[in-house]
Amino acid sequence: MGFVALALAVYIISVPLVALRWRTVLRGVTGRLAPIGSLVLATLASGFVNNMTPAARLGGEACRVITLVRLRLATMRQAAAAAAYERLMGVPAVAVIAAATLFVVGRMSFETLRPMTGAIASAVAGALRGRTLIPVLVLGAVAVGAAAAWAGPVA
Predict the structure, then answer these.
(1) pLDDT tier at 86, thresholds 50, 70, 90
(2) What CA–CA distance (Å, rounded) separates 70 from 136?
(3) Which of 88, 122, 124, 152 lies at a 20 to 30 A Cα distance from 135?
């Protein structure tokens, strides 16, 4: 029962944090500060659609976009751009988690990463210059490389 309570507490904390992240992204796209309560409702609605439809993440993102448009917090174009940007922002985090997992389970070493150091340096440099898409694509390629390293040679 303790794990259920812990999972519920983490979820309750995560919903407003996701709404705050959306607020930051939307402010960058629209130039306006959206009310946090509306964004919490949009986050909960998208989570419901994600969990209840076979469309996985796509259905929830569509729900969030439509909710933002109906609440007049963004135009369709702005809401779709914000959703795409937020999804792309998650790629580097997944790449880092995947690489860390591969290190922990012993399927990757620093020797494996040596051929990828140029790509990683390029991603960091792109991030420092404020170019978001370049680091996302490069770190995505690094994640693919890490997966290939984990799979090992084809026999």
Answers:
(1) confident
(2) 30
(3) 152
